[in-house]
Write a structure and sequence with these properties.
Layout lengths: L1 H22 L10 E10 L10 E15 L2 E10 L5 E8 L4 E5 L6 E5 L7 E2 L12 E12 L2 E11 L4 E7 L3 E9 L2 E12 L2 E4 L3 H5 L11 E3 L10 E8 L3 E9 L4 E10 L2 E8 L6 E8 L4 E8 L2
Antiparallel strand pairs: 1-2, 1-12, 2-3, 3-4, 4-5, 5-6, 7-8, 8-9, 9-10, 10-11, 11-12, 12-13, 14-15, 15-18, 16-17, 16-19, 19-20
Length: about 300
Amino acid sequence: MKTIIFFAAIYSVTFCFAQDQDNLDYYPLNIGNEWEYKVTVKDESPTFPPPPSEIYYEKRTVTGDTLIEGIKYFTILYKSTRGADEFVFERIDSLNGNIYRFSRWHDEHLLDSLNSQLYDTSKANRNPDLGDNAESICVIVSDSVIYGQSRPYKSFHTNYSLHQSYHTLVKDIGLVNYWYDFDIGYTDYQLQSAAIDGNIYDLTSIAEASSNSIPSSDNMIFNIDDPFPNPFNSVVNLRITFNRKANIQISIYNILGERVWESVYPQLNPGLRTISIDLKNEPSGIFFIQASNFREIRTKRVLYIK
């Protein structure tokens, strides 16, 4: 009996360790890996005419590693078409799955908790400028066809004292989107291309990105505008622009990560299409609209007020 209990305990520890190691794949922080994002900054000041959105591109490349106060960090170079380059330093604690970031602007802070499961909360915070009293909740643990194959992903919603953010991590790829609001608008990061451990995931061209050329939106299969109205009552509309014929899946999640609405639209022709979504049977609150196909994923946040 003691032998059985002993081996059962070893199996349990080994299984849990394997699960934790598996979670580390949601953030592949290895030298040579790189990600490029399209960044949209939207100023929603009540002026007329409304201010135009600012769009720029940012590439993040893991260039090496270094020791800071005796702790090993990976060095990540941020290159932006805005013109300002910056180095940040990140590390992953393999024991608890926490990601920590250190930069010249901030001391080390908790960036993400990779071991989070559905509804788990933490003090993780991707934007320390927005406050130290953040509470992050894992709102979605699911899978979707991304870059040609089904991949697990986790989405997080973070509340600050006056602000909030939303981001998604995809296994073997990393951060694919990140949205946060500020006083009079929001900033939205959407992954355009990545080179991860020798694998290229390409919405534009890694070669083009390396030459600092700005990728054309025509290289994307689809894009979505901000849902309207927002806040909404009962029905919210989503405008999707298709650059080529494509299938698309629209899913709606509530703040608890529960899927409350879903529909698949096969072989939609190029052009603009408006999809109306009726949530009259749902309670008031924050919802996340997620559009995905075999290569791309987009997420928008909406507020439902009855």
